[in-house]
Amino acid sequence: MNRQGAEVRNARAVDVLVVGAGPAGLAAAARLAAAGAGRVEVLEREPEAGGAPRHCVRPGFGADARGRALDGPGYARRTVRAALRAGAVLRTGVSVTGWAGPLRLETTAPTGLETIAARAVVLATGARERARPARLLPGTRPEGVLTTGELQRTVALFGPRPERIGRRAVVVGGGPEAGHAVRLLRSAGITVAAVVCEEARPAAGVRGVPVLTRTVVTELTGRGRPTGVTVRGRDERTRTVRCDALVLTGDWIPEHELARSGGLPLAPGTRGPRVDAALRTGAPGVFAAGGLLHGGTPALRAAAGGRAVADAVLTHLAGPAGPAGPPPEPASLTGLAAAPPPPGAPTAPRPGGS
């Protein structure tokens, strides 16, 4: 600490800073580094890079060089290797805590505090499924209530052990995530009592399971572990489905805390940052891609978005960036004019206007 008691924050500069080491962020970093964009650095708050595919132990992630189907962990390892081979710098266990100025981010890591300035910033922080409290689902917080991501992580870490998850589960949701959850539960030897979805017809992948369409879960019963869920159908009648596990799928929330803290305008429909056709946000030099823009985007599609945003960043680095993306609402990034740039940092116009 200095004499005023404040923690010392190191300052340095890079050419491109990518926040998030999932499919979109790694694909963007690989293309940028291979194209000679200078120092491309990827920051990931988790201890391991690769994003959600690391926990998806199933095929559906393309094929390797020999034509063999890749599962999620295999795909994650391949994307990490590709970014590193291209020359990108990957730092895990690093959390971005806020903005210090135009194209300047504050970070914290076991090695200390830093302010990193960049010529361009790519936000690829992904999305998460809405958990029970955010869905306003009444209950007593019993064990055995999981999102799809939590279910995948539990199986990946501990194996298919019903004693950790439950023996009879209800899956909520009608999208492809519900099908993935059903298959994962069955592979773990867990009975799927029902799939509950508000839609008139669920997505594929739930065959052989009772499906309650146009139905919602209104209450979770039991203490310590669920004993059942109360559901309400379109006729307004309620019933109880017996279960000791509940898997909540879909209903995505973008990980937009960094975008919001910077005052970037958000899209009303997705709540991710508003972008133009070149994936530019309302702040010059700040781009966004992947699940942050559309929650639930499949890994291969998110990676394609990462490559697309890399092309837009290369255009930005090559010369005048032209007009910014969507007009900002509000017009300024919070506190971005407050701090002087670090030594050697590139300069940039104030993001988002005045």
Report the sheet-strand fraction: 25-35%
Q: Tell me how many strands there are.
A: 21
Q: N- to C-terminal separation? A: 34 Å
Low-confidence stretches: 1-5, 321-354
Give the rounded overall mean pLDDT.
84
User: What structural class should be given to the helix and strand makeup?
Assistant: alpha/beta
Bulk shape: elongated
Helical run tally: 7
The sequence of SSEs as H and E is EEHEEEHEEEEEEEHHEHEEEEEEEHEH
Structure commentary:
This protein is of the alpha/beta class and 354 residues long. The chain contains seven helices and 21 strands. It has helices at 23-34, 72-86, 148-158, 162-165, 176-187, 257-261, 299-318, and strands at 9-13, 16-19, 40-44, 59-63, 69-71, 89-92, 95-101, 104-109, 112-117, 120-123, 127-129, 145-147, 168-172, 191-196, 211-212, 216-221, 228-232, 238-242, 245-248, 252-254, 286-288. Strands 6-3-2-10-21 form a five-stranded parallel β-sheet, covered by helices on one side. Strands 12-19-13-14-15 form a five-stranded parallel β-sheet. The protein has a four-stranded mixed β-sheet with strand order 1-9-8-7, with no helix packed on it. Strand 2 (16-19), helix 1 and strand 3 (40-44) form a beta-alpha-beta unit. Helix 1 runs parallel beside helix 2, helix 1 runs parallel beside helix 7 (299-318) and helix 3 (148-158) packs parallel to helix 5 (176-187). It is elongated and about 60 Å long. The two termini are 34 Å apart. Residues 1-5 and 321-354 have low confidence and may be disordered.
